[in-house]
Amino acid sequence: IDFYDESGTSNQPVVRKTSEEINNTKRDIVVAISAGHGGEDPGAVGINRLQEKRVTLAISREIEKQINNTPGYRAVMVRDGDYGMTLGQRTRIAHQNSADFFIAIHADSYKTSAARGTTIYALSQRGATSQQARLLAEKENAADLIGGVGSVKLAGMDEDLRSVLIDLSMTASIAASLEAGDKIISALGNVPRMRRTNVEQANFVVLRSADIPSLLVESGYITNPTDA
């Protein structure tokens, strides 16, 4: 493949690349996996004192293994031990590793053992899609008040332009997140019981990266014996 000078001054090829060289420039798709809670923050506590932080780490490590066994994909563990992290630190690690996708793993709880099932959430900029999603976002966000809009380079830009770029980037990121969430729900099939068969939306701080499609998975209720 010849890449020509498009300035109009020359019709000579300025770069010549073989298809093999082009293929060699491709990189793996990077998925950042964020195991919820950790350290002094155990998260929810369920059956037999089962702690959310331990469940989320175990699930995240299994996802890491599955992703790394898939050609063309590479997993990055945001939390890979029993230690606390701010929500800001979690998104920074994703950006530092040039993540193409961010998935936060959590486990839900309820005051009775009746509630069960998996729910997948994407970010909503305009309120939650259900009362449950709103309450959950409030609970998870309370763990840390640090948030942001990702690594979009806005320094030196006009304020109106910054606002437009953030809005466009966030809209595209949410759309990609919703599409991915729908595919995950379809792929899960009958593996877990789905509490919701659609992607719920709420204003989760950890999902507020303007340039990385992100999902939060409530993998089940650790207060329910079957889910646990």
Protein described:
The chain is an alpha/beta fold and 228 residues long. It contains five helices and eight strands; from the N terminus they run ββαβαβαββααββ. Strands 4-3-5-8-6-7 form a six-stranded mixed sheet, sandwiched between helices. The protein has a two-stranded antiparallel sheet with strand order 1-2. The longest helix has 30 residues, at 159-188. The model is unreliable at 2-6 and 143-152 (pLDDT under 50).
Protein topology:
Blueprint (H helix, E strand, L loop, with lengths): L1 E3 L8 E4 L2 H6 L4 E7 L16 H17 L4 E5 L9 H10 L4 E8 L10 E5 L7 H11 L17 H30 L11 E3 L11 E8 L7
Backbone shape: globular
Percent helix, as a range, is 25-40%
Query: For this entry, what is the oligomeric state of its chains?
Result: single chain
The helix-and-strand class reads: alpha/beta
- What is the number of helices? 5
Distance between the termini: 55 Å
Low-confidence stretches: 2-6, 143-152
Largest sheet: 6 strands, mixed
Q: Compute the CA-based radius of gyration.
A: 20 Å
What is the β-strand count?
8
Looking across the biggest beta sheet, what order are the strands in? 4-3-5-8-6-7
Order of helices and strands: EEHEHEHEEHHEE
- The pLDDT mean sits at 81
Strand proportion, as a percent range, falls in 15-25%
